[in-house]
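Private note to self, pasted from the team thread so I don't lose it. Backbone tokens:
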């Protein structure tokens, strides 16, 4: 049963890009129901397989879960009627005066929007927990990662098809052709984040295959190594290499400055992790050759990325940098709002309600500015400094746990390497965009992080 649950949760996440990046209230609701139902099914399946399933070791997640839970609990407090003009947002008092009647105030300036924000966070947390529970079994971890990268490859194929045929629809939704790859997303930067996550996951699989071949080859057997590599290329190594190239080309085709740059940064970070691990374990079988081969491969890859991207991307990077001037001005104005709501926050997900009071004309002809293009600033504005700090500290704790797990594990450590690298990708891209506000990206990140956490400590201990 747990194998079936593994396939289902990977399908739910893998299909999320096709529905406009799952960036619609109806899809939020459907994903929440499916994630919640799957978590119940996962718990039942693990209970039935309790004797064969590795110990869950949930205590290792207690601190970050508590941090995240307290931050989300504050978001719930924000939507409750405060009954006080001191704690409640002043807009409620003004509205009451205009309407000449008492209106129950709340800290959140827009409680329905905060409710949606809570729902999206809970959906992502449910996916992460469900994947973690399942992926304590290495067999289930393989299934989840394999299904995810295959579906991501299909999404990449769909995006490349739309781009090559200049289609003006996403499924049956009208969407003008922008000249960049977006696949099922509206925004090419969001598509770049998703395919960057898939690219890093595919790269982790490729590295794992190559290291396995190098470790199984005889030390002085050059012919044996070539034979085994050729054999592997005709099997899963070749398949994963195709998926890696496919998702990498998709990232490049988005033309996203941040998406491409931070995907490269995440891949380099993964190579650094393997390099340090190999250096500290000189006796690891195949360690030296694997590291040298990886260094050559990543060097060629980086050169190829900029060669394939062409002068168009390089010109944008040199002339505009990662963030445009309008975004820098938006950050400054958002920070002003953050200081005004520093401790209580304006309500999770209420940036678009608060920002109009702080913005000037930041972009000619643009009448709606509903994103700060910086997830950290929006989180600070929405939750306030104390609660936002708890949430961010929780994520940072998980990041360090997967890094520690990568160095602690001898086998199947690529799950932790992938999780650490995608944390770098998301963490950097969130500085200049709204990566985690697009649910398809959030769910993919939760899935890969859950896999890494589940395989960050030994699975030999049985429950």
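Design output:
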């Amino acid at each position: 049963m747990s194998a079936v649950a593994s396939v289902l949760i990977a399908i739910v996440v893998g299909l999320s890009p096709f529905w406009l990046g799952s960036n619609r209230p109806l899809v939020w609701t459907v994903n929440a129901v499916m994630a919640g139902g799957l978590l119940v099914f996962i718990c039942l399946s693990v209970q039935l397989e309790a004797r064969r399933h590795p110990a869950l070791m949930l205590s290792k997640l207690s601190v970050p879960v508590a941090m995240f839970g307290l931050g989300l609990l504050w978001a719930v407090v924000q939507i409750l009627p405060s009954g006080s003009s001191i704690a409640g947002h002043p807009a409620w008092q003004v509205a009451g005066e205009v309407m000449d009647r008492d209106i129950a105030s709340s800290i959140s300036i827009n409680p329905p929007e905060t409710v949606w924000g809570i729902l999206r966070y809970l959906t992502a947390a449910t996916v992460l927990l469900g994947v973690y529970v399942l992926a304590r079994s290495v067999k289930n971890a393989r299934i989840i990662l394999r299904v995810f990268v295959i579906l991501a490859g299909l999404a990449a194929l769909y995006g490349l098809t739309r781009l090559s045929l200049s289609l003006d629809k996403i499924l049956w939704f009208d969407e003008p052709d922008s000249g960049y790859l977006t696949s099922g997303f509206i925004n090419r930067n969001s598509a770049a984040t998703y395919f960057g996550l898939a690219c890093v996951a595919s790269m982790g699989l490729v590295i794992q295959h190559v290291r396995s071949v190098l470790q199984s080859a005889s030390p002085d057997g050059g012919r044996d190594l070539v034979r085994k590599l050729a054999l592997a290329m005709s099997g899963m190594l070749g398949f994963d290499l195709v998926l890696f190239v496919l998702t990498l080309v998709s990232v490049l085709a988005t033309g996203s400055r941040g998406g491409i740059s931070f995907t490269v940064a995440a891949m380099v970070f993964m190579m650094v992790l393997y390099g340090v691990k190999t250096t500290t374990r000189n006796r690891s079988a195949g360690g030296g050759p694997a590291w040298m081969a990886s260094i050559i491969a990543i060097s060629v890859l980086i050169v190829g990325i900029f060669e394939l991207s062409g002068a168009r991307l390089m010109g944008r990077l040199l002339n505009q940098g990662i963030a445009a001037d309008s975004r820098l001005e938006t950050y400054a104005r958002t920070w002003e709002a953050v200081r005004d709501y520093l401790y209580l926050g304006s309500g999770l997900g209420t940036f678009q309600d608060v920002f109009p009071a702080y913005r000037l004309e930041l972009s000619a002809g643009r009448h709606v500015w509903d994103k700060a293009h910086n997830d950290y600033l929006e989180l600070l504005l929405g939750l306030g400094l104390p609660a936002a700090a708890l949430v961010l500290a929780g994520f940072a704790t998980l990041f360090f746990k997967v890094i520690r797990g990568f160095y602690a594990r001898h086998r199947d450590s690529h799950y932790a390497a992938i999780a650490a690298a995608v944390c770098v990708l998301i963490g950097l891209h969130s500085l200049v965009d709204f990566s985690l506000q697009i649910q398809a990206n959030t769910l993919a990140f939760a899935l890969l992080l859950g896999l890494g956490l589940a395989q960050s400590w030994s699975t030999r201990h049985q429950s």
